[in-house]
Amino acid sequence: MSDATPAGEPLLKLRGISKSFGAVQALADVDLDVPAGQVTALCGDNGAGKSVLIKCIAGTHEPDRGQIFWEGRPVRIRNAHDAARLGIETVYQDLALADNLDIVQNMFLGRERLRRRMLNEDDMERAAAETLAGLRVTTVRSIRQPVGSLSGGQRQSVAVAKAVMWNSKLVMLDEPTAALGVSQTAMVLELVRRLRDRGLAVIVISHNLNDVFAVADRIAVLYLGRMAVHDDASKFDRQSVVEYMTTGGKGLTGVGAGRADVAGS
Fold first, then answer.
1. pTM given for the model
2. Sign of torsion, CA 41 159 168 215?
């Protein structure tokens, strides 16, 4: 696998991704381009297929049909290890953090560094501190404080820092600002911008359109398991996104209509 994406190619490209669970068609012929150095917001009503699509990229589910291209080459992502090897990391809504462990222990959970068969605490502390500093996460008192003592925004920051420690190229965030206050939401959105500025591709699932328009370079809307539309964020307004989410764009008139590329048109 090459170390760089060919010119003009998105980092991740999905073509015709379909996934069923018994009689339920969760995804149907979904196409999506995810460029490096940009934030792609994935929107859709409940049950639209957002989480299933993310899990197909993350290796939790394997698509029934379709092709995934990574850095211009076809790949098969059968599990989370395959995704991690490519440089794909996911921060789910539950964050998967252990409250009784400190920040360093959480960031290296399952990937501990050893020296002479002993935990290399100094090395892990140094790497954790460097990663947090690189993302300008400065609100935590100590990297040795228990995660259970952190605020919601700080916990989200630790989860994101954990995701980017492993040479990741794509970070996927599932509702990263859910249940956060105004100041904590601002902290997380700034963190998303920093990931983009570092050249990473970012996919953000969000129902909060204020957050979407605050950080997204591209917007993709799923409707009943199909990609209703995907295009530059500048081609949408809030009303048009809501219309695509609730009707698939069928009732779209006025502002925003015709400005975005409807999938399959």
1. 0.88
2. positive
Q: Which option is the CATH number for 1-87+215-265: 1.20.1250.20, 3.40.50.410, 3.40.50.300, 3.40.50.880?
A: 3.40.50.300
Please tell me the distance from the alpha carbon of residue 41 to that of residue 37, in angstroms, as a whole number: 13
**9 class by beta-carbon count within 10 Å (0-12 exposed, 13-18 middle, 19+ buried):** middle
The three-state secondary structure class of 178 is: coil
d(CA 109, CA 254): 51
pLDDT at residue 69 is higher than 60: yes
Q: Residue 100 region, left (φ>0) first, then alpha (ψ -120 to 50), else beta?
A: alpha
Is the distance from CB of 54 to CB of 65 less than 8 angstroms? no
Looking at residue 257, what is its pLDDT? 46
Q: Is 27 helix (H, G, I), strand (E, B) or coil?
A: strand
